[in-house]
Amino acid sequence: ETALRRGGAASSHLPRRFFSVESSPERKVAVLGAAGGIGQPLALLMKLNPLVSSLALYDIAGTPGVAADVSHINTRAQVAGFMGEEQLGKALEGSDVVIIPAGVPRKPGMTRDDLFNINAGIVKSLCTAIAKYCPNALVNMISNPVNSTVPIAAEVFKKAGTYDEKKLFGVTTLDVVRAKTFYAGKAKVPVEEVDVPVVGGHAGITILPLFSQATPVSNALTDEDIKALTKRTQDGGTEVVEAKAGKGSATLSMAYAGAIFADACLKGLNGAPDIVECSFVQSSITELPFFASKVRLGKNGAEEVLGLGSLSDYEKQGLESLKPELKSSIEKGIKFVQEN
Ligand code: NAI
Q1: CB neighbour list of residue 11: distance below 8 Å, 6 or more residues apart
Q2: From the annotation, which residues make up the binding site?
Q3: Nearest Cα to 263, choosing from 64, 108, 89, 52?
Q4: What positions constitute the catalytic site (predicted)?
């Protein structure tokens, strides 16, 4: 019945430009925390993605409304809302990609690590359910502190015997999105052509944009400009937290970034070539067990973790300075699961 309905929709309602992707495989995406500040616009953007055939929206409250609303959009994905722990299994079953923006955001004056006590438990319980209901899904971790929640997820999956390092991603795309925007503004180059890798982690100085590798190349930027751009990229989240003055952190730009990363995961799963995005993954690029760098996405998830390339002296310094903080955030996550 579902197939029939979908077929009918394809021939009569979808715009013509979607026909080419109609033959793309069925893909289920689940969003956990779908009624939140990030979750809602992310649900909207995933509903607009023609690679998604089924969209499951899960939260502890509010999802029936979000799902009903988004479901009226005349695009391919069939939308269903799930609310409360007893419906989590159904939300997850059959998922190819699970996106996790569940948990509390920062308020002014807070670091991402201040969220640890609440979000660690939320992530742990959601990942326990993922191990049970969709152990093969690619997991896109948005919940902060990402530097700790990714190691938490890895430990939960290891305990459950389902861990595959190729399938776990910390979403650092917003750092890349910011670096691109700020670089384009300063270098006066067209923003849509800009590429800037951002490596390390996702908090403060652990966010290391590699402007020496930015394209299009700009010779107009001084060392001071690069320092200012680096700092602004590292503090981009705080800029939004302060502007929102207690009403949360980045949600709209984060939803955009999350949608870009999930789309890259789906393209990789579908066998599209040359899909590369920065992400915080298990890594042997440095001595740290997890690290963000460019990752090649494919049918099994992270097919290849790419190296850092050549760094400027300023970036080499930044890399050394970020390691102690990143190391301790990773260890904090691992310890949390081992002790709880
Ligand atoms: P929000 O408070 O607006 O939404 C969070 C949602 O999670 C709420 O709807 C809440 O009901 C839900 N939730 C809480 N416990 C849950 C559970 N056990 N299962 C399912 N859902 C649950 O927060 P917002 O602004 O959407 O931020 C979410 C997270 O994303 C925060 O941890 C924030 O720090 C993080 N974030 C990450 C970024 C990144 O670049 N990776 C950027 C911006 C935010």
Answers
A1: none
A2: 33-39, 59, 106, 112, 119, 142-144, 178, 254
A3: 52
A4: 202
- Nearest in space to 178 (alpha carbons), one of 256, 100, 126: 256
DSSP state of 156: H
Instruction: For residue range 142-168, list pLDDT tens digits in order.
Output: 999 999 999 999 999 999 999 999 999
CA gap 185, 154 in Å, rounded: 38
| Structure tokens that stand for 24 in this block | 């793309």
Positive or negative torsion for Cα 186, 226, 194, 277:
negative
pTM of the shown model: 0.94
The helix or strand, by DSSP H or E, that contains position 23, with its residue range, turns out to be none
> What average pLDDT is seen over the chain?
94
Chain centroid, CA 203 distance in Å: 14
- Residues with Cβ within 6 A of ligand 1? 32-33, 35-39, 59-61, 101-106, 115, 119, 122, 126, 142-144, 146, 171, 174, 202, 248-251, 254
202 is a catalytic site residue:
yes
Q: How far is CA 241 from the centre of its chain?
A: 19
Spatial separation of the C-alpha atoms in residues 234 and 179, rounded to whole Å: 9
ipTM: 0.99
Which amino acid makes up residue 50? P
Could you give phi then psi for residue 208, rounded to 5 degrees? -120, 95
Tens of pLDDT, residue by residue over 82-138, are 999 999 999 999 999 999 999 999 989 999 999 999 999 999 999 999 999 999 999
